[in-house]
Amino acid sequence: xxxxxxxxxxxxxxxxxxxxxxxxxxxxxxxxxxxxxxxxxxxxxxxxxxxxxxxxxxxxxxxxxxxxxxxxxxxxxxxxxxxxxxxxxxxxxxxxxxxxxxxxxxxxxxxxxxxxxxxxxxxxxxxxxxxxxxxxxxxxxxxxxxxxxxxxxxxxxxxxxxxxxxxxxxxxxxxxxxxxxxxxxxxxxxxxxxxxxxxxxxxxxxxxxxxxxxxxxxxxxxxxxxxxxxxxxxxxxxxxxxxxxxxxxxxxxxxxxxxxxx
Length: 262
Hints:
Blueprint: E1 4-9, H1 16-26, E2 31-34, H2 47-50, H3 63-74, E3 79-85, E4 90-98, E5 103-107, H4 115-118, E6 123-128, H5 131-145, H6 150-169, E7 178-181, H7 186-196, H8 199-202, H9 210-216, H10 219-234, H11 245-249
Parallel strand pairs: 1-5, 1-6, 2-5, 6-7
Antiparallel strand pairs: 3-4
Helix pairs in contact: 1-7, 5-6
């Protein structure tokens, strides 16, 4: 059976990788392919010159190789995913084996940019997050995980990250069949993605944790308002009540299918 390929796109630090990891945990055996692994190798260029390259442009990525790899995984074949070093601005000699699985997630800035890649995606997800939130997250991540200085992160963001997002990433939202918020709790956005999968595919997922989703969507506050309403009703003489108080206090049953929070 052909793998069901899920594409997750969105601006830098919008929450794509975290969402991909959470969805993969709910779909046991799922492989994750990162677009970041496919930056073109430029080892022949001196390091100082590589640092000046625009890595936030689609041309910086070897999407043709990724396309070949997605074709391989769709055909039930394994492939070797490149390993990229953000500290050295270059590919390493290592690779990571990606084996066929029922579900495959490919995540990255431009996953919805190239028509050839879009054509291979069965579910297309876009993570929408405000620019100021993305910048704050990117600053923390690049300093802590990628060996960058705060100044270099700020300069790169203003010079290439922000303009490229406006030119090449934001417009791809129109190609998504599901848009989620990068500020929502991961329990919510993960459930949205699972709900977007075809029923036959979604059956392989673990049971949805309804309690976490309700809490994330502020159901506690709704229950508090409901409790206030019950107290108000109880203060009205019985003969004036339109229905029994017990009907108001009855606990609602969860919906049969997970709602879309769009």
